[in-house]
Amino acid sequence: MGRVLFGSEFGANLGHIYPMKRIADRLHANGHEIVFAVRNLIQTKRAFKGTDYKLVQAPFWLNLPGKDINRMPTPSYADVMTRQGFGFKENLSGFFGAWADLTELVKPDVVIADHSPGLSAAIRRRYPMINFGNGFTLPPSHLEEYPPVIATGKPLAPQSKLLDIFNEALSGIGAMPLEFLPQIFDTEGQYVCTVPQLDPYASYRKEQQIGPIEDSLNLHLCQLKTMCSCIWLMKLGRTTSS
User: Fold this and answer.
1) Partners of residue 8 on adjacent β-strands
2) In whole angstroms, how large is the CA radius of gyration of the chain?
3) What's 63's DSSP letter?
4) Backbone angles phi, psi at 41, to 5 degrees
């Protein structure tokens, strides 16, 4: 069968890992090989005890000591990325190069990611890819700029400047440039795993929310079947949309 790479770049602890594991468990049961690139290897290894999933370290920025850097407001997703070091060309070039090298080593048939803009930007159009998230972590990809979704705080950097930094770093690995910053998540599949009432981008969406992926919900098997069908079509070399 196929090899599926799961990527988790942003976020502390395992909040983004468990939903991916639910998808991975179903794919593994159908015979697919599973590889995870994660931010927190130690916690993830404990959570994956009893599985044969391969684990590798995901590229991420160890925030330099600064004045309350983790308390800085992040009005838009652009600010989330800036606070994670994406406003520095040297950082971003390193992230993109590392993700490109990692995927080249793993050689996945499909990549699935949650809250992983560096991974998505670096490999989109190179590998079939699905992005999913809880609403806030998967902004719409058709917008020209990320809208503010939090009332407090000011932008940490102009989005036009971030776009220039992204495209310069993407050029360094021979990747496709972005016309607009939100195109980072413009991949073959985009699944918003929340309900409209909890989606900060609900008024901007073109795609429909599919609801949370939770073991406690009877709907989750239907949602997983939808994602797995998308994965299977991409493995066969066909494109699909959300």
Assistant:
1) 114
2) 17
3) P
4) -70, -40
What is d(CA 72, CA 79) in angstroms, rounded to the nearest whole number?
9
- Pair of tokens at residue 12: 């502390």
Domain residue spans of the chain: 3-235
pLDDT digits (tens, 9 = 90+) for 34-87: 999 999 999 999 999 999 999 999 998 876 555 566 678 899 999 999 988 899
Residue 219 has pLDDT above 50, yes or no: no
Alpha helices in 49-182 (DSSP H): 77-81, 89-106, 117-123, 159-172
Superfamily of domain 3-235: Glycogen Phosphorylase B; (3.40.50.2000)
CA atoms of 181 and 222, how far apart (whole Å): 32
Using N-to-C axis directions, what is the helix angle for 89-106 and 159-172, rounded to 10°?
Answer: 50
Q: Which residues contact 23 (CB under 8 A, 6 or more apart)?
A: 6, 112, 213, 224, 227, 228
Give the pLDDT confidence of 76-115 residue by residue, as tens digits: 999 999 988 899 999 999 999 999 999 999 999 999 999 9
Residues in the chain: 242
DSSP strand pairing (54-57 vs 33-38): parallel
The DSSP line for 190-239 is EEE-S-GGG-TTGGG-SSPP-----TT-TTHHHHHHHHHHHHHHHHTT--
